[in-house]
């Protein structure tokens, strides 16, 4: 090997003998399907000799490939039957083509590995319906939300002051009627906020009846907190939805009769 073609690689820089052979083929700019075995074998053995001179440990597969190249070289020197079209290099060429394709695919996948290697895929899990009493209900927060609604109702429906007080100061509003109205609103909408369910109340009596209706529906789990609001503080923006898995029991029916 001339000085300009002196060894510039160390044997331990290659992943295996096929990697070394592919590098030599690319360096000599020869067709991989028509390998000049004598020339490649000579350069290959120079790499092996250089590794031995540097007292480097040579992997056994490099020695096996050297013997394979020597066997192919000897077969190339023997006369062959042209009719049988037997090329001693065929098996080596096929292995090199497969290895070359693997290296190209590895380069294509390398940026994808750096992007996606840290991700984990989680299987879908069916979450059973929770039938227990909802946790985290704070009476103070409920009272605060109701007071805010009362304040808004006063601002929206200011009644002129009259000099004569009526005999019945507050009209009686059925909680059951308000429950029907709440269920109707949630049937029309996928979800509704606490403010939306109470905004149509005309006075304090109707507001309290609707508020009691919401508490009763929460208690019997006829309505549920929307998932995204379950851990948030209770407010007038807290959203509810109908419980699709609701099944009334005997106690629920008795409670409904009491409200009637």
Q: How would the blueprint of this fold be written?
A:
Blueprint: H1 17-28, H2 37-53, H3 60-77, H4 90-116, H5 139-156, H6 175-188, E1 192-193, H7 194-198, H8 204-219, E2 223-225, E3 239-242, H9 250-259
Antiparallel strand pairs: 1-3, 2-3
Compact description:
By secondary structure, the chain is mostly helical. 53% of the residues lie in helices and 3% in strands.
Polypeptide structure, described:
With 260 residues, the chain is mainly alpha-helical. Helices cover 53% and strands 3% of the residues. The chain has a three-stranded antiparallel β-sheet with strand order 1-3-2. The longest helix has 27 residues, at 90-116.
Largest sheet features: 3 strands, antiparallel
Radius of gyration: 42 Å
Q: Which regions contain 5 or more consecutive residues with pLDDT less than 50?
A: 1-8
User: Helical percent range?
Assistant: 40-55%
- Topology order in helix (H) and strand (E) letters: HHHHHHEHHEEH
Apparent shape: rod-shaped
Distance between the termini: 105 Å
Number of strands: 3
The total count of helices amounts to 9
Spatial strand sequence of the major β-sheet: 1-3-2
Mean of residue pLDDT values: 76
Supply the helix-strand structural class. mainly alpha
Question: What share of the residues does DSSP label as strand, in percent?
Answer: under 5%
């Amino acid at each position: 090997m001339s000085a300009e073609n002196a060894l510039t690689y160390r044997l331990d820089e290659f992943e295996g003998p096929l990697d070394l052979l592919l590098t030599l083929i690319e360096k000599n700019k020869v067709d991989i399907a028509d390998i000049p075995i004598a020339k490649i074998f000579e350069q290959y053995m120079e790499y092996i000799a250089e590794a031995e001179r540097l007292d480097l440990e040579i992997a056994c597969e490099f020695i096996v490939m050297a013997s394979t190249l020597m066997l192919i070289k000897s077969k190339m020197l023997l006369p062959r039957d042209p009719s049988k079209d037997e090329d001693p290099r065929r098996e080596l060429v096929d292995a090199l083509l497969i290895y070359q394709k693997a290296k190209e695919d590895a380069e294509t996948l390398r940026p994808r590995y750096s992007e996606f290697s840290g991700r984990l895929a989680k299987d879908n899990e069916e979450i059973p319906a929770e039938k227990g009493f909802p946790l985290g209900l704070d009476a103070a927060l409920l009272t605060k939300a109701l007071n805010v609604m009362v304040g808004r109702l006063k601002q929206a429906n200011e009644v002129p002051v009259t000099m004569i007080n009526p005999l019945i100061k507050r009209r009686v509003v059925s909680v059951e009627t308000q429950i029907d109205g709440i269920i109707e609103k949630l049937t029309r909408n996928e979800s509704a906020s606490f403010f939306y369910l109470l905004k149509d109340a005309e006075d304090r009596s109707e507001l309290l009846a609707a508020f009691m209706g919401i508490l009763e529906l929460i208690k019997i789990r006829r309505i549920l907190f929307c998932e995204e609001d379950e851990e948030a503080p209770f407010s007038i923006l807290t959203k509810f939805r109908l419980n699709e898995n609701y099944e009334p029991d005997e106690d629920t029916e008795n409670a409904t009769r009491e409200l009637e």
